[in-house]
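note to self: dont lose this again. the chain is below, predicted strucutre after it. 214 aa total, dont forget to put it in the shared folder this time
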Amino acid sequence: MKLIYNNLFLPPRFTNDKNDLFRKTVEQVLEVNRSHMEKVGKDDRQAFGEVRQMRENETANDYMAYLQSSLRMEKNKKELEGNGAKRINFEKFILQMFVKGFDSFLKDGGAFEFVHSPENCLTGSTEKERAKERNSLCEEIGNYVRLVSTVIDPGKGSHVAFYVFCKMLNSVYLSNIRNEMIKYHKVVRTDELAHLIEIIELCLLSADAVSQKQ
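---
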């Protein structure tokens, strides 16, 4: 699931020149909220009523910058005004953008519907037939999800050492380190940190499965 999310769902939404995939997700979340509130007779209390649509030539990164800026302003306002401050829900909107967007991606992604609702994709009447269908669907998904050659060098001691270090961390710490490295990487524009980010991404694929019990 992480491979699909990180390699097939996210990249096109931030690298697509037309931003149509990202824009579609934004419009979908705003429309679903608006329709729901109108249905229950509370259209004047829409949770995302003050969240604007993407502008015509606005990029995904610029729109995310707008959301992050608005989120900080909302949090500062709450700290000053307390519970009486009007809630704009930018944090909830950002979360729903990616959760609902990924949910729709799995539903509309052909073979990926198997990941979203596996039993609905199986039509065999016997367990043998259903097992054959599962294997076929897994192979089809495998055609989309493949690890590409990376800059990680298993022959370098520094790469191995950092990998061992990352394997001792849980997904929360790994995600935080990765996010900070990505920010720094964008600022300094150097490939010297590329292998570190890729090692972290590799460890994140199995981080949740590693027991954190002492």
